[in-house]
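Our collaborator T.R. sent over the components below with a one-line note: 'Predict the complex.' Nothing else. No constraints on interfaces, no templates requested, no preferences about which chain binds where. So this is a plain run: every listed entity goes in together, and whatever single assembly comes back becomes the starting point for the next discussion.
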Amino acid sequence: MSTSAHGHWPEGYARVVLDSVDSTMSEAARRADSITKPTWIMAKTQTAARGRRGRPWVVPSGNLNATLVFNPGATPAEAAKRSFLAANALYQALAIYVPAEKLALKWPNDVLLSGGKVAGILLESSGQGPFVDWLSVGIGVNLRHVPEGVTEASFAPTSLMAAGGWEVDPEDFLTILADAYATQEDKLRHFGFERIRDDWLANAARLGDVITARTGTKDVTGIFDTIDKDGNLVLITGTGPCAIAAADVFF
Ligand SMILES: O=C(O)CCCC[C@@H]1SC[C@@H]2NC(=O)N[C@@H]21
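Returned assembly:
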């Protein structure tokens, strides 16, 4: 166990810190079959980082790049719920450095700070059978720098520093995040997804407001009512409730 200014490294989790790698997601995939415990892989820089929907992820130095790889013993649908655990953990970790009122969780898996995107989460998994063989939870946090050249125009990126937070060492932040994430896994095990969902909803951006979800094929606009037991976004539209499994959300 190691300590940092805040938090301690969680028991049962391993940590690997690399200077540079193509992507911590790729490194996780390469190591997945040989790990003996859930492992956080952090890299100071990435040369080919990826975001959701095949977008590139821009990585200025001083930001956090990390992937947790483990076998969740879960179906793909259960494994996918880990994005909400990661978002809750990120919220708690960031709230140490900025007032919590400035933070909000945007479905499905972004963290907003003063309305800008401060962190993103990317899930990848592998497996042919009913259960995934491994799951990777990739997390990028703009600690020090706002990435340039980001084209996802609806939520301009921001950083902890730009929004008035403290300067944070990425390794210290990872310790806090890993500890918060381990607590989320404990909550899932003891209380089920219902409790994770409640925590996520308590900090959700624009709950009760009219929002638009852009799926691959259409835009759905409605009142953001809740997320359901599977993590789907539920919008109340003119024709009734509509559950959406995958989309980009616009306010
Ligand atoms: O599109 C998003 O919002 C998700 C971004 C996820 C970026 C992180 S950085 C660490 C890990 N390695 C990658 O290549 N991507 C994820």
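Summary for T.R.: Residues 210-250 form a domain with the SH3 type barrels. fold (CATH 2.30.30).
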